[in-house]
Every structure is written in C-alpha cells, then in structure tokens.
Amino acid sequence: MKMKSKTDVVIIGGGVTGCSLAYTLAKKGMDVCLFEKKYLSSGATGCCGAGIRQQWSTKENAELAKKSVDIFEKLSKTLDYDIELRQGGYLIAVHDEKEMKQAEKNVEMQRSLGIKVDILSPEKINDVASILDVKGMDVVGATFCETDGHANPFKTTFAYANAAKKNGAEIFTHTEVTGIKKDKNQIREVQTTKGSIKADFVVNAAGVWSKEIADMVGVKIPNVPLRKEIMATERIKPLFEAMIISFKDGIYFSQQEEGQIVGGVPIPEQKPGFKTMPTFSFLHHMSKTLTRYAPSLKHVNMLRHWTGFYDVTPDSRPILGETSQVKGFIHCHGFSGHGFMLSPMVANLLSGYISEGETSKVLESLSLDRFKGKKLTGETYVVG
Amino acid sequence: MNKKKKTIVCRCEDLTLEEVERAIDEGYTDLQELRKKLRIGMGPCQGRVCIQIVMKILERKTGKKIPKKSLHTYRPPIVPVPLGSLASDENEK
Q: A80 — contact with chain B (CB < 8 Å)?
C-alpha cells in the first residue's frame, strides 16, 4: 500500500484503542492513517487479561466503563466480527471492614450510574463460583456485577481494524513513526520509516511508548511503564464464569471461552521499567495465590506465562484530549492497566472531539493539565 | 459423513490447513497476527509441532520470507507444570 501525501488524522499505535478510534473517525467520514511499529495488538492489548469491568472507585472510570459495556454488548453485530464477549460478572473480594466501607461507598456511586452491582455475604460467594475457597480467600464479603465480563482482545482489535479499513481508514503495520513536524504550535507532518504524511491531527495511542512520541513534539507526560506478568493454564471444562479479583492480594483470574484459566498477580519486587522476561517469582507467587483461592486448580497444568506493560499515570487514570501546548496533538494513553475495557468509549469521546470539537466533563477531567498543582483523586481499584 | 480428508496443522487447537489458508486470504499475513487470530502455538505444544508448518504455508501463500525477528517466543514454564507443584514450598530453604 502506498502512503498518500495528506490525511486528516494520523493515529500512532495499533492496539485496541488506536484501532477503535480509527474506526469511529473513519465512520464519521474522516480521512485516517494508522501507524503501528510492529503488528496489530502487539503491545499491551495483546498481553492483557481480557477483562471488562465497571466496578471502579472513581466516577469517571465507572462512567466510561459502563458506557463501554453498552457498546461492547452490541459490538460483534456492529462490526460483523465475533469478539467473544462473555458477561459472567466480576467478583471483587472484600477482605476486611475497612475495605467493606470503601466498597459500600463505591457501590452506591456505581449504582447511581445505572451499574447493576451487589454486595455479597461470604456464604453467597460460592453461588457465583463454586471452585472458590472462601476461607482460603480470607474475606468478609464481595461485590459482584453481573454485566462485567471479558472479550477476546485480539479479535476486538482485528474487528475494529477491519471495520476501519472498510470505512476507508488506512492501516500501516511494521511502520515506525520517527518524527513529527510542527509549524509554530500546530501539527504539520508525521515522518515514518515508510515515508512522510501531512496531517491536521496526530493521536498518540502508543501505550508505553507514548512518552517517546510526546517527546517528538516537546510535550512531557508523567507516564511510567510497569511490567506485569500473566499466565494461562491448559484448557479445562467450564468451571466458573466470573472474573475473580482482589485488590489486597492483587490477583485476578477468569476462565476464558476456550477453557483456559488466565490470570495475574504482581510480584513483590515489582519496579518500573522495560524488562520483558518473565520471572520465577511470578510462577511461584501466582500458583500459590491462585491455589489458595481455588485449591482444586492445583491439579491443573500451567502452560505458559508472559509479560506485558501497564502504561501508568500518577492517578491511574488515562490522559485524553488535545494538549494545550501543540494544536492538533491528541493524548490517548496512560490507561494504567484498563485500556481494553475503556476503548469503545474513549474512541467515541476522542472522535467527537476531533471531528466536531465536542467536549465533555469526563474528557476535560482527563486532560494532561490536571497534573498541574492540584490534589488528585486517584483510581484505587487497580489489580495485577 | 463427510469423506473429504482434513489436514490438521495444529493439533492442540484442531486447526486445519483450510482454516489457516482462509485466514491468510482474509489478510492475516503477519505470523503473529495469524497466531492471535487462530491461537496457533497457544496450546500445550506452544508451537513446537505446528509453527514451522504454518510458516511454510504463510511463505508459500505470500511469496515472502518470514523475517527471523518475527518468530514465535517460547514461554516458560516451557512444558506444562501443575499449579500445585509450582506453588509448593518443599524445595525452599
């Protein structure tokens, strides 16, 4: 495919967010070019735990997630591609009275947004997932949202990319962005390993590589890469449908469509950086925590484990919208481990802004400028 | 009964030659994208049985050699290990 000389929007990054934005913009009739330095879903999207959750502690995240679920529910049909959505719910373990107080507050906020979420007593936990050992989990209860769930991140990305192409977007894989030219304070041109292209907007959806892209236009962003490990077992018969998570233990796990159990846990010695090799510490820590939660899994084989990255901001919330320093430069990164599940709504917000200049309270509250001097309410409901 | 013989390319995922060729025709011409679309190499063998065959099919269909750097990564623990063994403290001092 030959690159044209000019486009309305360049998107940098072929993960689920870049591809969903390419689709929504192309659907609105805009001219879109997406550049991905490796292959589609090669970054955080392709390594992620596939979860879709609406139970958040900050209202912005809960609202974005709720609206994203509404879109996910129709997405296979909209994009004519099965994304393997399964709504088996999310069960969040609550370990003590302090956590329960916080959970009660969050549930009230989530319910005000129309999210169906309940507080469960320990006796009710096995009704959701019979393989759980409530004693081993050491809980005083749980919260449960039945419309949470998971979908296939690869297929969701491919579905968006294919639909984007059908609507006229051009997607270049194995094409690395090497520079961005600006004229005064307006984006002008993007240079890649396959040639240059003029553009009015550049969207930085490069995940943990967003910092390098922002540096190209002289914009500083506060993101740090946090290395995360995750594993998959062999396929077994369907045992439970919910995603099980705990903020205290950091664990999350679910059984996927094909039968494998996929999950992760942070290792005690975790620190920021780009190191990619999996560790023995994870193997031990994960298997220990997982078999404490679900003892019968000790007979199940682990097949493989791999590393991915969270692109983490100081308040664990994404950075979205046009930067005040360079006109046309759009932030779309910092998802801090929950980019996949927010991608449908993020694409809607940003495509509305880019094509019609629409803005909203949520979009404004997630601007880069929020880090200037003000005290922030961070998202505390982060696992893995 | 369907008498047409099926050629299985990936035994872990029961993938046929036809399915691999169809995905390539649909545009999944990057080995990694193909892998993620079809789950090739994600089963117990981790691609030791199938990935060479899939590479050959891909090279034949696209007429392009697959660059070494885009090859498959083998993930620990390399062979399947029960979670109970990994969780055990018996070997710790």
A: no
Judged by CB atoms closer than 8 Å, whether chains meet at B30 and A173 is answered as yes
Phi, psi dihedral angles at A324 (to 5 degrees): -75, -15
Q: CB-based contact (8 Å) between B63 and chain A?
A: no
Which residue among B36, B77, B80 sits closest to A283, beta carbon to beta carbon? B77
Whether residues B37 and A39 touch (CB distance < 8 A) is answered with no
Contacts of A40 (CB under 8 A, 6+ apart): A14, A15, A19, A157, A158, A161, A171, A173, B30, B33
User: Can you tell me the ipTM of this complex?
Assistant: 0.87
Whole-angstrom distance, CA of residue B19 vs CA of residue A359: 45
Q: Nearest residue on chain B to A278, judged by CA atoms?
A: B76
d(CA B3, CA B11): 20
What are the structural domain ranges in chain A? 6-47+154-221+315-371, 87-149+224-312
* Residues of chain B contacting residue A290, judged by C-beta atoms under 8 Å apart: 83, 87
Chain B residue numbers touching A278 (CB-CB < 8 A): 75-76
Mean pLDDT by 10 residues, chain A (384 residues): 93 98 98 97 94 94 96 98 96 97 97 97 97 97 97 97 98 97 95 97 97 96 94 96 96 94 91 80 95 97 93 95 95 96 97 96 93 78 81
The fold of A87-149+224-312 is D-Amino Acid Oxidase; Chain A, domain 2 (3.30.9)
pTM over 0.90: yes
The CATH homologous superfamily for domain A6-47+154-221+315-371 is: FAD/NAD(P)-binding domain (3.50.50.60)
Q: What is the DSSP string of A53-74?
A: ----SSHHHHHHHHHHHHHHHH
Size of interface A-B (CB pairs under 8 A): 84
The answer, for B39 touching chain A at a CB cutoff of 8 Å, is yes
Residue ranges and CATH numbers for the domains of chain B are: 8-87 (1.10.10.1100)
